[in-house]
Design brief:
The complex is a heterodimer. Chain A is mostly helical. Helices cover about 80% and strands about 0% of the residues of chain A. Chain A has one domain. The mean pLDDT of chain A is about 95. By secondary structure, chain B is an alpha/beta fold. Chain B has 11 helices and 14 strands. The mean pLDDT of chain B is about 90. Classes of the chains: A mainly alpha, B alpha/beta. Chains A and B meet through helix 7 of A and helix 2 and helix 3 of B.
Chain lengths: ~250, ~300
Amino acid sequence: MSRSTKGWLFTLLGYTLVLEMMLAAAILYWPNFRDHLGAVKLLSKPLPVLGDIIAQVESMGVAAYVVGQHFFKGCNVLGAAAAALIGAAAVAGEAQRGTLEIWLARPVTRLRLASERYLSGQAVIWLGVFLTTLTIPLLLTQVDEIMRLDRLMLCALHQCLFLGAVYSITYLISCASSEPMRISMGVLFFMIFQFGIYMVKTVTHWSVYRLADIEVFHHILVDGVLDWGIAGPMLAINLAGFLGGYVFLKRRCP
Amino acid sequence: MPSTTNISSKGLTRRFGDHLALHPTDLEVGPGVTGLLGPNGSGKSTFMRCLVGLVRPDAGSAVIDGVTLTGDGVEIRRRVTYAPGELALYGELRADEHLRFLLRGREDEAFGRAKKIAEILGLPLGQKVRSFSHGMKRQLIFAAAMAPDVRVRILDEPTEGLDPTKRSEVLELMAEDAQDGRTILLSSHHLGEVDAICENLAFLDGGRLVSVENAQRVRERTSQIVRIWWTGGAPKDAVQVLSSLGEEEVKLQDDHLMIHLTSSDPRPFLKRLGDAPLPAPSAVEHGRISLALLYREIYGVEGV
């Protein structure tokens, strides 16, 4: 097994395990949460956006709770962190450790190097989301609830396009930089800021997390199709991030 | 001018911001070993990286083994092996795994040959690279660069950081490789380290190709130079006394005298030196010359 494959597998394993633990804990807590929804609603009064989320759970039940816990909370937070860290290290990591020259010096085209590095990062992020989403129906049986797997997988696809966009932008910056720590910290701070403003009623519409929140996932669950008005631009950002990264890598000196 | 040219650059130029790292450079290299010599920052690595497509030249062209440098240079890199001067490896890999990494895109047999070279050099292939010394890492890169069956090898400071024994082994392997008709372009900033196996020497300074010389001719020139030191500096009348011995030129350098002999055999001069009315020297050196002195004394170029 090659060095990079081993590295990606370990990253995928760690990322998926943490996501799964968060998901399992959340689902197993559902009956307790449902029973105390009134108290939670009372507690969320000072935060109107949080109040909206609780109201959605109250009206939609376990579906809103699960997409809220898994996609909106788990994947959006942990996935964005993974996207920032993996994306930042993609090329800038090689430059920082001084291995960029031996990485580029082999008789392999830069397009191939760019593609392999980009796709392996995307694969870790996407697989983590899909693998954990696959376990949702099974976990729900433990709390006597059901959800349609095909609809959940559509939600996972939407989530991956969102996280993929974060990863792709980070990857693009990484292809032009030699400082992975700065890139990852910058992207993380930006995403935390975005999560922060999501919770503020007056500016919540400026948050990128509006693109992957309970409301969006609820529509996917109900309609059974992706909202291409949101998914399309996110897909375009994914592609643009890769192509932009390739353009930088093509001209990059060791 | 080599009879068969395997590396040819015409006007190869590279600028980094305001700094012209490589002035337009024309160089033709044929089979055998050619040394690319110059002090740190003289443009050797930039030139080599341009040749293999790692750095895109701003102007000029290069043809290696019949292939013109275009795009990301992958077609060139398929026909050339390149050992970078920078010594950063993946410490978490075992040496044999690292050889596989370095040999990606090469023929399958290259890995076996690389292992054999590494074994000749005494590298422990089962050990993690992070436990390797500087010299061992250099040898690992060298083994990977010498293994593929290509006609041209470009080696950036392959002997840097090696102890004298390993340096000899590495030079011997390169000489054997060149005897098979391959073209090796190697860089160094120490003339004495590599000139023994070089057939031609190209001198770079400040990003400019200063001169291309036949190595034998350079060796003859350096063998006509004797340097003499005395404790407490050269005696006041030393220049006058030694000039009268009939040698070509006697010059007072900072703390010693440099004498250009009329022939490459120093013995007649040394005999006359023994008879001269001068105190006994503390050191006499013959046939060795630093790159700095070579530039200054032979080519009249300053700047090392």
